[in-house]
Write a structure and sequence with these properties.
alpha/beta; six-stranded mixed sheet; four-stranded antiparallel sheet; 4 helices
Length: 191
């Protein structure tokens, strides 16, 4: 069930990359033109490689700067070869905003035509009933199989340990803010 919801969210969010939003107001940040769309998302038009993308964000960079994100995470993802496997690992009982945060990250790192072209797939952080979904945690991470482990915590922060990125979140909204911060950093925007 969770993967059907994830698939629906992925399809709807991926379509945003080709959507040309109507903008209500500009929100410049440093030398970047970030605009607020009438749909409530912030947008950044960027060229990456040979392609142009319109990248949506839930938050402006000013609204994510208070979160801790290890400064080695973005450069580590940037250094990965295309098609490197990256598992987004969630508790099998997760729902809602945490899944949105995962879809947002997959949209940027993701498959084939996405910005980084990594082989992003879902995993569970623990066994669940008779599921065939792989169970992957930081113990399973290696240079060919990266893991992004989403875990509930009292604080919101992103850390890295070897080939594992740990996204700790105090709430779903905080997880989404942290993924926005990571996305800005992946695009070279200090946040």
């Amino acid at each position: 069930m969770i993967f059907f919801a994830l698939l629906i969210l992925a399809l709807s969010l991926c379509s945003v990359l080709t959507f040309v939003a109507s903008y209500t107001e500009a929100h410049p940040f440093s030398q970047y033109d970030i605009v607020l769309g009438t749909d409530g998302f912030y947008y950044l038009a960027t060229d990456f490689g040979d392609n142009s993308f319109l990248v949506p964000f839930h938050y402006h960079p000013d609204n994510v700067s208070d979160l801790f994100l290890d400064q080695q995470i973005a450069p580590s993802f940037i250094a990965l070869a295309r098609n490197t496997s990256v598992a987004l690992s969630f508790s099998p009982t997760e729902k809602g905003g945490i899944i949105v945060a995962g879809v947002d990250l997959a949209r940027i790192l993701g498959n084939k035509d996405a910005l980084f072209g990594l082989n992003v797939h879902s995993a569970f952080s623990e066994p669940f009933a008779n599921s065939t979904v792989p169970v992957l945690t930081c113990i399973d991470a290696n240079p060919e199989q990266w893991v992004v482990l989403f875990t509930s915590s009292n604080t919101t922060q992103g850390t890295i340990s070897g080939n594992c990125v740990i996204i700790e979140y105090a709430s779903a909204e905080e997880a989404i803010r942290l993924i926005d911060k990571l996305t800005y950093q992946l695009l070279g925007i200090p946040a």
